[in-house]
What does this fold into?
Amino acid sequence: MFIRSAIAAIALSTPLATAALAGTGVAMAFPSITFAETVADIPPAPALSPKSRYLTNTETATFNGTVDGFRAFLDANPITDFVVPTDAIPAIEGITYLSGTWPNPGALRRVNLAGGHSVHEQVVANTDTNFVYQIWNITAPAGRAINHIKGEFTFAQSGDEVTVTWDYNIKPNVFFARPAIRGFLDNDFGPFMQAGLTGLVAAYER
It folds into this structure.
């Protein structure tokens, strides 16, 4: 239970759709944003791993529209406007941009979470059809059990419909943490992700 609660302390560090796509980093209310002058003390991002090394949760939503139109909507309406932090999912309290221009590949920022914890987050790829980001250097207790997190949003057009897919992938540092991480993804963060997508799509289609 302790490990699962600690894992929850880093859950909302994902950019969450437009926060990922547009770099707003908001969570219910706009967080404070500051700029740092150096990244010398930040440990480098771990190497990304084959998919089989991650524990993954995937959520999707399909709706009428276009990829370009939906991504423009996300620029103005981040998914964090449609989710509610819970006892298991903390809020983002601030963003510190460290290098690069978010959301361009290579851009780096620190995400400050409720409870005094933080993570580092970097853009891996940003194309017309997907957005990939990596999270590491987790200061919450769960950071001892998590090597890194890789998140990805994928956007696909089929006729008049768009399907958005959100993959959230956690690579454990230690084998014994896998059941707790799996339980957190299934019972807490998965429903949180789906609720956010459902609310976002409903607002887009109005």
Q: What stands out?
A: Residues 2-37+53-205 form a domain with the Alpha-D-Glucose-1,6-Bisphosphate; Chain A, domain 4 fold (CATH 3.30.530.20). The chain has a mean pLDDT of 81. The longest strand covers residues 146-158. The chain has one domain: 2-37+53-205.
